Request: fold
Amino acid sequence: MTGVKSGSLQTLKESMSAPSFLELDVDCTAIGITDVNGPAVHFKEVLFLDGEIHEEPETLQSHCASLVALWTAMRTPSLVDLGQCTCIGRRVLKQEPVLGRRFAVHAAQLGDNSLLFVVISSIKYWNDVKTVKRMVAGLVEQAVQIYAADNFPSCAPSEQNDEGLDWYQFTAREVQILKLVASGNSNKQIARELGSSPNTVRNQIHALFRKTGVANRTALAMKVAATK
Reply:
């Protein structure tokens, strides 16, 4: 993943669609900016969010700030097992409290007190620690290039989200997935409902992001909700 010269968001998404990344079963990737003042870390801005595992955005922001605080002491790609956390998947899927939730974090200095960070999360146990660290470091490198080129779209819902969808543009399977996403189902729940795999569902949802012109599940759900 390292050594990519392009500063495009598409390059970042392609890295996240690579088989080696999909094998990590990452259900949330967050990229953002924090201000660091000594031991204090202030969550400033979300640049990119793929997967929303928490019921409240503040929960994810709090986790990211805590992980960045740990990273500032190490200054190297780091893995952290936070154990049980209050997230949508953990509450709904009974096996998740046993498996625990794992995070990998890396960051890059943007200024005297500003950091760009990448956090990835999964309930899967990562055996190949070196690979995970290399991948999160590669995502940081790409994210810095995109940020420098000012190519990150706003994470705020755009005005067109309330226009709804034209169902005829979608296959029957895509309509099923859209409705399941809008109902708050996780990738694993959707996979179970459709008799598919979570990785396949993730790829299908990413394709729906592109097809509907949205950046995350919240915006996609808003479009479905606005459709008559």
Observations:
- The first strand starts at residue 28 and ends at 37.
- The chain has ten helices and five strands.
- Strands lie at 28-37, 40-50, 78-83, 101-109, 114-122.
- Residues 176 and 221 are 13 Å apart (CA to CA).
